[in-house]
Amino acid sequence: MSFVIETSSLSKRYGSFKALDAVDMSIRPGTIGLLGPNGAGKSTLIKCLLQLQDKDGGKASLLGKDIDRHGREVRTRIGYAPEQDCHIPGMLGCEYVTYCAQLSGLPFSAARQRAHEMLDFVGMEQERYRKVDTYSTGMKQRVKIAQALAHDPELVFLDEPTNGLDPKGQALILDLIEKIWRESGISVALSSHLLHDVDRICEQIVIISGGRILVQDTLENLKSQRKPGAEIVLPDSLERAQGLFARKGWVCEVLSNGNLKVLHGERTLNPVIGALAEEGISPLEIKESPNALNELFVRALGIGDKGAA
Amino acid sequence: MRLSSLGYKRWEGQSTGIWTRRWVITKTGIDLCLKSKLLKIVIALSWCVSLIAIPVYFTLGQMLSPESGLMGYLSGVFGERFYQAITGLMSWLLLYPEICVNGIYRATFYQMMIGHMAFSFLAVSLFVPKLISHDMSSQAIVIYNSKALTRFDYMIGKFGIVFLILSFMWVAPTIFAWFVGNLLSPDWSFFVHSFDAVATSVLVGLVGVVALSCIALAVSALAKRTSTAVTMWIFISVMSVPISVIMKFVAGGWGAYLNFYYAIYSLGHSLLNLGQVLLDAQNMLPFFSFWMPPFSERDLDTLPMFQRDVVGPSVMLAIFVSISLLIISKKVKPQ
User: Fold this and answer.
1) Which residue among A65, A161, A263, B105 has the highest number of C-beta atoms inside a 10 angstrom radius?
2) For the segment B258-271, what is each residue's pLDDT rounded down to a tens digit?
3) Cα–Cα distance between A208 and A210 in angstroms, integer?
4) Distance from CA of A49 to the nearest CA of B (A)
């Protein structure tokens, strides 16, 4: 299978608002990060792919199969943990996961066994025998992941799985997600508005904003596209530093915050640090210019803000 | 919070078919509904309605058989003349079993229908929120739709919950009473003579159950909260009575069928056709006129017993079902 997710001109409108604007993408198996600010269209994209919402136009394939023609068949091989709570009132944790596995086509005995295995996998112990209604946010997130994995899918969509969790809980969930791909070969599409989450575990990145794909690339490529520049915080010696950089032929400018921005064109910061040391200038801080991922994400946030305004 | 060190395990097995997945929805829904003790009591009471009929059938069967234990006991208590009077009377009945046996069964099934309708209303009031309302309010509907199910599969599964519970408390006791009642009778030809009555009664029960199931699902789909679903169900059921009375005067007989319970009742009344049973008895059983004066032409035109309308309630119930299905299909989707 070459692509796990493939879309062509996928569109979705809510009235006059374009939630998805002719989205084209082709994603290979692995850990995929759908990154974008709130309201960018990440959840809508997932819902359209899973046919939870009707698309207005375009085509989409999951695991190489057209969702319009093979929707139900495709969903037997897909897992989904939605952003919001989605438990069935009155059910115990293990009953809920077993039931979800049965709905995905597992016979009862296999579903019950898988449910317990997945609850072990996500670290749910005796809590599984409590009603889901009584769970904490972290437990609900974990039981959602367990139900998404219980039928052994080939691709799993996790929509904002770290929402509402404390840093420790976030780390646990991210560890878990990383294990899903690394240990089992299940492709994971992680939707998040948190750069840190995606940066930590995803190999492929799709940045969405205003219903459009800003970029689709591997994390490695995006990180390597570094702008050869640095921002230097100096206590004094601003003119001396400007003179130094002018002699080196590096363009520099004084920023509004008083710092000096220099475009050095080198692969690392070492030449800048060395030049400053030779000149006897001691900077307070040297900040590397943001990589392409950071920059694109900041740009996406900007588009998102404009859209919201 | 400790993350388990256990690894992920793959599953290699044969997936179940779509009907099995629909059945899973139905079975799980029934289990959740039956957690209510009150519902179990209502179901038991509904069964009592039919179980009461069994002694009636037993007594009838015993009286028709001269060698039966009951007749032997009665003749011992009341004397030989009583025995001869009863056997004489019953021999007339045996000459016309298609009227007498069938008529008695129709009359009891008619009473059962009224009882089952009342208990069905109570039962639906108890579990209507657990059908779709809970899934809508808890967003569980998203989970159903993200699995290997379509909206139609979900609706079939949920329909199965209401249909099976109501069938169990309406159709099943009717069949059970008929079967056991005939099993206790000394003459097994009663099975044949009463079959028409039970078939009609089951048909009425199934139509009623299907209609109530669809309407209950629609109400459950319209309400997001438990209390709203129950209130809406009771309001629709109760308020349709005055509305149907008003509409009967405004729009004629059909207006009365706006009350879906009345529509089901009218259909049952028309199909079980007790008026015809009485007329046949009057025309064919010579002794019947001793008990009841003959019906006049005016009686046949005015007495409700002789008023039959199968088309009106059927059409109105079909409209109710169609509207309900439309509401369910519009409402049952993730928000």
Assistant:
1) B105
2) 888 889 999 999 99
3) 7
4) 10
